[in-house]
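Researcher: Let's run the pair from yesterday's discussion. Sequence first, then tokens, for each.
Model: Starting with the first of the pair.
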Amino acid sequence: MNDNPAFGAGLQPFMGIPSFMRLPVSRELKNVDVAILGVPFDSGTSYRTGTRFGPRKIRELSLLIWGHNSTLNVTPLKKLNVVDYGDVSVIPTSIEHTMTVITKTASEIITSGTTLITLGGDHSIALPLLRAHAKKHGPVSLVHIDAHIDTWESEFEAVPYSHGTPFRYALQEGLIRTGEYVQIGIRGPLSGENDYADAAALGARTITIHEVMEKGVPAILKEVHERMKGPTYVTVDIDSADPAFAPGTGTPEVGGLTSYQLLQLVRGLHGLNLVGFDLVEVSPPYDHGDITAILASNIVFEYLSLLAIKNG
């Protein structure tokens, strides 16, 4: 825990400077276990923008998190040396230039031996992040928690990249291990009747919200653990949660996970070879009472706790 009084360490959540959990803000990675990186980019959205403000708001609400994880019985900031790396210098008018910068910045962190946790931003950022992780680890196993499959070919004519396409291109580029891609919580109306079949043909195991509710979270986690054999990347779209729990997002879908189920899913990844993580699609302009950002910051804390357990 950062004890620099300039950050407001030891003060109430409404005091001090809001880095993530008051961590030191630094780009010095020597002996750093985990870096928190913001990607304030939302030009890949197809409906409501605003996720460019997500990283800042998630950091702000992270000040509500006390340091000890009572469920996992670990205090991650006592086990890990963690820094807030700041933000990627995004270019709002160019998704392709921004993706290049994301991959470059993420690679700089990963190649140093530091594990990366990324705060989005819209879900288009997952593709350049996966490119960076695949450079380091080879193709990764992928746990994708979302309301949407995000394996469409294109949402906009003649433009391949958006927040609805990252995993199609990740699969086509060989960034994901064959048979080790699971998407969880999928629901809502589709653009066509063959969308799920198309995702399956690409290599996705689509677990709909209906299957989650019928089987229960423990059964879903059992399958995830059976499938994930390699270095595992985790990507969480906050719209996987029902809008009752996460209204502040760009493309809300009714009938989703509860906040507790989402926490269960992330906690249940304990034991996998976790190598990277992103949390995307928090849109503060639509977030009533900051409840979406509160949930998002806690999900990041849960993943950080898993890294602390893994680190011993």
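Model: Moving on to the second of the pair.
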Amino acid sequence: MKNLFTIFLISFIAFSGFSQVPQKFSYQTIIRNSSNQLLVGQTVGIKISILQSSANGNAVYAETHTPQTNANGLATLEIGGGTLLSGNFANINWANGPFFVKTETDPNGGSNYTITNTSQLLSVPYALYSSSTSSSVSSSGDTLFIGNQSYIIPGISAVNNNGGQTGITQHTCGADYVHNTSKIYGSMTDQEGNVYKTIVIGTQEWMAENLKTSIYRNGDQLENITDDTLWAGLTTGAWASYNNDSQFDCPYGKLYNWYAVADPRHVCPTGWHEPTDTEWTTLIVYLGLEAVAGVKMKSTGSQYWISPNIYATNESGFSGLPCGARGFDGGFYSIGLYGLWWSSSEFDTGFAWTSGLYNNNGGAYQSYNVKLYGLSVRCLKD
């Protein structure tokens, strides 16, 4: 039997209130049979186990699900929301990792599990981790404490009480409170004539605003797909405005599927390119690694980010905004909660690497997501 290809979504399902940390997270699997054919529109049985320390470690939690696959062989479930077999999901100490997800699948919908896969949670459930890890800010506002580590972050106290909002420069579309007045921004123009601020971070120069072109570099038109069903069946490049409403383009930019990013005609203009996952890693490492880089990458305050927008300083000038996403089903989700950006790097036939920022912690996390998703794009100077 073929292995089960799996991915866990790096966004959390929002229940009851945004200020509460949900004790579950989304997980998706692509399921194929022994002939490597997608199992489409079938109910499957899945057992989920959370293993601690190693791929052969003890199961601290186990549950079962019986989801139905969609037209792409994709099954979606919420870990923490299945039929309990053992353990207590709310009591998992995510700080005491690493953790692994073991999936056992019965393609016939029962409990005769014949397909097994184990993968590490390289991007641990962030909000759950932050809820089990002590964090604080010094009285002077210049030091962030996470667990036993400390990080110098000038001006954080002013940002947390909105004192840092006055004078923050506008987005080129005219939206206020996006950029960092202490940084020197450049500019670039895409093939459609849209102008963007740019920022030098370390050895790289990034767009400091999200792409919003509707044409490729050579002038060919990118499809604007508003129909949910059509979006869900795409294998070619396309874009959409959030909620199919162009008012969201300022300041969030457009959402693109990965096929647009990978197209040889390029969505980024001449002299710029779609960044690889390695180039995203270079940025994140330069800013202090995954656990804290997001602090320096997020726009401050709560004009765009849903509170608490943890520790955001925008020290780097990257000016990350929570643009949400368009799902593989065509629906729009989670504006204000997170921003996800494509890389040009493929993970496998169904998934590609992404980088993300979140309102409820200060990390910048790399993971992989379904190519059908509509996510944001930043270009990197050649």
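Researcher: Give me one sentence on the second I can quote.
Model: Residues 277-286 form the longest helix (10 residues).
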